[in-house]
Amino acid sequence: MKYLVVGPSWVGDMVMAQALFIELKKRDPEAVIDVLAPGWSLSIIARMPEVDRGIAAPWRSGKLAIKAQWQLARSLKGYDKAIILPRSFKSALVPFMAGIPERVGFRGEGRSLLLTDGRKRRPTRSGQTITDRTVWRYMGLGLTPEEYQHYQFTVPLPALRVDNDNAAAVMASLGLDSGLPAIAICPGAEYGPSKQWPLQNHRALAGELVQQGYQVWVMGGPKDVPAGDEIAGGQAGVFNLCGKTRLEDTVDLFHHCQRVVSHDSGLMHVAAASGASVVAIYGSTSPEFTPPLTERATIIQYPIECSPCFERTCRFGHYKCLTNIPVQRVMEACL
User: Fold this and answer.
1) For residue 240, what are the β-bridge partners?
2) Could you tell me which of 255, 322, 263, 320 has the C-alpha nearest to residue 287?
3) CATH number at residue 229
4) What pLDDT score does 122 carry?
5) Of 33, 255, 284, 305, which has the maximum CB count within 10 A?
6) What was the pLDDT predicted at 1?
7) Would you say residue 267 lies in a domain?
């Protein structure tokens, strides 16, 4: 089988999609898997041994880009099956225009005519549905229609390829001590502040970790630079690496760390798939929906009746699901 998988547009979702690729390869070791996805994700896709080729998607957020999709579709030949992970209309266009004979995806946004196998939510015996967890949703689209009726499978754990030589080179370029144990802190969360533990808590945690003999790497993208400055500023042994590393570099640096402290974010999933031990802080979201896919995770939550609410900002303004998590509790999980 030759598959074209239309991948998701978020870092964490792309990492979780690797579970599907692993399962497809398990069922057919000779399968060819190409992934159509946003250009930023090609570097992380390249770390997935199961994927033969990453293809940059021609669309941007809010844009259909019909002409560009048609031009790309004309070049995509020989695929037996398309698996369309996003639920948007535009994500189903390229497989349809390319004439791929089997096109599997969830129904919605009026795209049923673009699919040959439009799936709907199916209840399980526990009362949950296949769309209750992101990774279940992706895995479900890899099942046959008959298997999907019964919804039974084991989710394999994503495992990104690690480049130790690149890790050494990045550490040297950033002036980091490769011989000193490191703990990473990831203060960002693209979703919104309802996922983010207070920066002053991250700063206090970083200071205590340095006292315990660790160097602390604050990691994130360019948008996280101010947060990194607030955490690292004036603290010896705490390094603000936000915006200084590529996405593939984070895989290698996380693998080198003793622990990675993160919110429910894309970097949490990258850390889990790098083989790192993860301390995952949840606020408005739930590990029942997007858990770190690793056996080496510690989940930290504060029980409060309004959580999980899945809101980007706290409707009450108090953010108690996060502010009531003490530094000492996270510190103990790190140690």
Assistant:
1) 218
2) 263
3) 3.40.50.2000
4) 64
5) 284
6) 95
7) yes
